[in-house]
């Protein structure tokens, strides 16, 4: 019975390593798109997905380190990535982020 | 035994999430144009990150008996915010002058804007 649990834990360790490598490769692909993206909305899109990749890395790190202290980090990255994407989208759309016209 | 099954389920969830995020990254690199890239960038990573966060939640619940409300809140927030971000980005891209690739159809959003300006 104990051996089964040990095998399962080993499988989980290997799986987290594989997932880290896969997400690192996707980060490299996304950074390539951020650098050479033909237009600015391409770059904003890739930056949005980079936020998702950072959240995934934080969650995998929480599994590797067996800690609950990274949950705040995941929530904060989610909120900041959303607000950053909205600000970038407004900047691309109108040229300003905060418009002071009251009409 | 139940712990072993839990570990296997968590491994499957993590692999699923990584697959979706990786395929989204490949899609962002391979699709032509902004709107098709948004197609790859808003749907697949949402499912991927939700399954990875559910895996982390199950791991903390199984090993330390902690029900992490912050992770559930993060899942809910991502589920709500990702379509909004995609919509804002697509509207910004359309208004900044990028035309979508439409094979036989007309640009209905363009017609809608023109009709609203005529009124």
What can you see in these coordinates?
The complex is a heterodimer of chains A (103) and B (119). Chain A has 103 residues and is an all-alpha fold. Chain A is built from three helices and no strands. Chain A has helices spanning 2-36, 40-65, 71-94. Chain A is elongated, with a radius of gyration of 19 Å. Chain A starts with a helix and ends in a 9-residue tail after the last helix. Helices cover 82% and strands 0% of the residues of chain B. The chains are: A mainly alpha (103), B mainly alpha (119). Chains A and B meet through helix 1, helix 2 and helix 3 of A and helix 1, helix 2, helix 3 and helix 4 of B.
Task: Describe the SSE topology.
The complex is a heterodimer of chains A (103) and B (119).
Chain A: H1 2-36, H2 40-65, H3 71-94
Chain B: H1 2-30, H2 34-42, H3 44-64, H4 69-95, H5 108-118
Helix pairs in contact in B: 1-2, 1-3, 2-4, 3-4
Tags for this model:
heterodimer; A: 103 residues; mainly alpha; 0% strand; B: 119 residues
Give a nutshell description of this structure.
The complex is a heterodimer of chains A (103) and B (119). Chain A is an all-alpha fold.
């Amino acid at each position: 019975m104990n051996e089964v649990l040990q095998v399962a834990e080993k499988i989980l360790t290997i799986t987290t390593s594989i997932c880290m490598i896969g997400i690192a490769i996707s980060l490299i692909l996304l950074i390539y798109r951020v650098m050479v993206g033909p237009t600015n909305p391409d770059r904003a899109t890739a930056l949005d997905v980079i936020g998702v990749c950072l959240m995934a890395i934080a969650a995998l790190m929480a599994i590797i380190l067996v800690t609950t202290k990274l949950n705040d980090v995941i929530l904060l990255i989610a909120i900041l990535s959303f607000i950053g994407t909205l600000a970038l989208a407004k900047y691309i759309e109108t040229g300003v982020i905060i418009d002071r016209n009251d009409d | 035994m139940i712990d072993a099954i839990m570990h296997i389920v968590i491994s499957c969830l993590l692999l699923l999430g990584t697959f979706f995020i990786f395929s989204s990254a490949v899609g962002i690199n391979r699709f032509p144009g902004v709107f098709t890239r948004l197609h790859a960038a808003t749907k697949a990573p949402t499912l991927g990150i939700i399954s990875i966060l559910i895996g982390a939640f199950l791991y903390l619940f199984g090993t330390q008996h902690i029900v992490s409300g912050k992770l559930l809140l993060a899942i809910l927030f991502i589920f709500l915010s990702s379509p909004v971000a995609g919509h804002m980005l697509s509207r910004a891209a359309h208004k900044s002058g990028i035309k979508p690739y439409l094979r036989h159809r007309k640009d209905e959003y363009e017609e809608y804007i023109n009709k609203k300006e005529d009124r």
